[in-house]
Amino acid sequence: MYSRNSWGGDVDPFILTKFEKVGTEGDADPLVSFVIFEWRDEKYVGKLATPDSKEREYICDDENVKAQLCNETEVGAFILADNHTDSSRTQVTTNAIHLKDPKAINYPIKKTGYYCVGTYGYSGKDYKAVVEFRNAYGELPAAQIAKLPFYGGLAITYAVIGA
Prior knowledge:
Elements: H1 4-7, E1 14-19, E2 31-38, E3 47-48, E4 56-57, H2 62-66, H3 84-87, E5 93-98, E6 105-108, E7 115-120, E8 129-134, H4 142-145, H5 148-162
Antiparallel strand pairs: 1-6, 1-8, 2-5, 2-7, 3-4
């Protein structure tokens, strides 16, 4: 995704994620773990279970709360490194989405980069979501925007030659 500073445009670029509301019986409130990050900040998602471990723990659950990888208020969300706010290139956002009343998540793009959206069905229930990647310059795919000046010059050349 390109930041607005990279190519201009009328809209501030963003990633909008909407989860579909799930009707459940009783008091059950299914959870979905959700994370958005720029791919170079991947190292800040998850923590090593022990200092000598090679595998990372990604989801905050009761077991990881007991291991002090996360706290009780973060249950259902992705685990983030302790230093992610100071060291990450861009904002890393994680939430535990309650599917009884899901809120839309709008992630503003401040820097150009490759952004990742991750979800995990924490409660084991099926869920649906829509993710919209909106660039500042409109609906043109990001791979095509760099060709726009070339195509403009080509159109002028054709107009001059054809006249």
